[in-house]
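hi! just following up on the protien thing from before. the input was this:
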Amino acid sequence: MCEKYYAHSLPGKPKEEWQPLQEHLENVAKLAAEFARPFNGDIWSQLLGLNHDVGKGTLPWQAYLRHSNEIIDDFMQYYAGRVEHAALGAQWLYERSKEAGKLLAYCIAGHHGGLQNWNDYPEHALKMRLGKKFPKIEIPMDISEFPKQLPFKTPDGTLFGFKLQFFIRMLFSCLVDADFLDTEAALDKKKAGWRSKYPALSELRKTFWSNFDQLRNKAEDTKVKHQREAALADCLKAAKEKGSLFSLTVPTGGGKTLASLAFALEHAQKHHKRRVIYVIPFTSIVEQNAAVFRDMLGDGAVLEHHCNFIPDDADWTARLAVENWDAPIVVTTNVQFFDSFFARKPSKCRKLHNVANSVVIFDEVQAIPVEKLMPCLEVIRELSLNYKVTVLLCTATQPATHFSEAFQSGLKGVREIIDDISALFNALKRTRETFIGTLSENELAGKLTEQDQILCIVNTRQHALDVFNALPVSEENIHLSALMYPAHRSRKLADIRNRLENGLPCRVVSTQLIEAGVDVDFSCVFRAISGIDSIAQAAGRCNRNGRSENSRPVSVFTFPEELENSFFRKAAQSAQKLFERFNGDLTSPDCVYEYFLDYFWKNQHRMDVDGTLDLCREAQKGDIQFKDIDAFQMIKTTTLPVVIAIERESVDLIRQLEFVKFPGSILRKLQQYSVQIYPYQFDEIRSWLENPYPGVWVLRSLELYSEQTGLKCKPPEGCAFFG
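and the predicted 3d structure came back as:
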């Protein structure tokens, strides 16, 4: 009867055109084994594929499938409604091996609903599901041998539990992606044909160098250019070497972004890596970096994946690649990357196997929140040790995550790419950083008006608004805030760059959003007190291209109430201890080292505040609490998107939502008019909002938008609605 058993039906088609169960099992086994081969998990994944759907090989499940398609035949006598099938394959393996079979059981039982806790409320515990009575499997079953050894290295026995749950999640990724892909190929050949249409990494490497050479030939011949070339040369030299952990320590403005991409492309070519994944700490700069990479690699070469990314309806390649990161260049965020490695749902885990045998670049690695650092470091350590991942840790300050006597939990064996960090920092030293004391908003505004071109960076949106409001009304004074929607903010940045290039007056008051990779070059910067790493980022916006041979001033100040803010207090206090000792040289490697010694490394006791690693360690006997581990979140405070509909295009797009069946392309365009706000802010303006489409909240009030963003001079160009 084996030929009568099917895995999937095709609506409206005779069962002879359905996918046979045995064919599906063999296809998934082959795919899953291929996916797991980079980390030597192919035998394990093959077993998963061959057994994941054996629960469909029962008379009641086949009757259920036929009943769903209104087919009446001999199987109907076994029909008993919807039948669970996932746990049956898990039970089959567990009964034959309480060791390897148990580990595989997590994946098979969860391949639809997600990895479960071993111990939980009775109806949810995997242990209980494996003890249930199920119908007899009618298809041929044969397991000649289970794997005898785990394929990963365990140099530190205390972390065995972490490695075990990590390995199972990677196997789970191989299984669910293989299952999705084979099912798609059987049921929707057109959709399956849209996958993997990206150019090869070797092609992208050629495109990169062609565009990069044009860019460097146009660059102004300054000392900064020569130092960027020196850093690039070090990257290309290191790219030839074997190794799994590298660091690139280059001061802000030293060409780190493109040099790191050059390293990744050359290293991938030399050592046969499958893709390059660029992980960025802040959503605000993902789109910017992705745009830089597209300029260098071509429009169809880069996959963006973050919480604000909605693929265009017409771009099927990107829409499908988001599911499993089957693209040569992926740009994502810390949140998306690290949350996925502690997740349990198929949708989040599906992409993980494609991280293996890749080059993964972590930009500004020191920006990982201290409270989450240890779980994140263990992910990095494990990928580099057991999954053939080459990790590049990029930083503009001190390599804060390396092992040292002061930080013995840090990463060992990291190879620094820059031959002489001190020499590079000294050569690229373009600023003089000093602490100037306490200033009120009005006093600060007065100092800003003394300069024609000056940038002031503060820690909160409210401070930015208060300082900006203390300035006289003038187009020469510009406010930047994350409460501005991206299209508006982009125009403001274009205006700022135009003014700077043409020598026009330009006084900018901004939150930290301008620090993270925004390419602007001011002759003078003021920075509210913060950690030394943030001060270094601010200094990177001053004399950025080295046009002034003399060091330009970066003035650090504090508001009277600044240190009362607990969020900034600890970092600022650690920085303040160094102001006198390193006056004028706050961004030097020595100062940054002392800062991390005081603030960062002495906080090792709170580097895993949620106890995630403790949960992972408890998994060493195979009793794994995947649902509990899934509670890990890089950022626990969620935000809500609100569309600012005060321009003609945004108003028109909102109207179109009412009439479209597939809104993806419209929602993507509306991202340029959306801001992310916290729930308490949402509640405050709830009465002003409209909800014209499920999940879409719209603010049409120019008055309220102006109040929040300091829009004192004139509304955005093309503004159509005045509420």
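The chain has 29 helices and 19 strands.
Residues 201-425 form a domain with the Rossmann fold fold (CATH 3.40.50.300).
cheers
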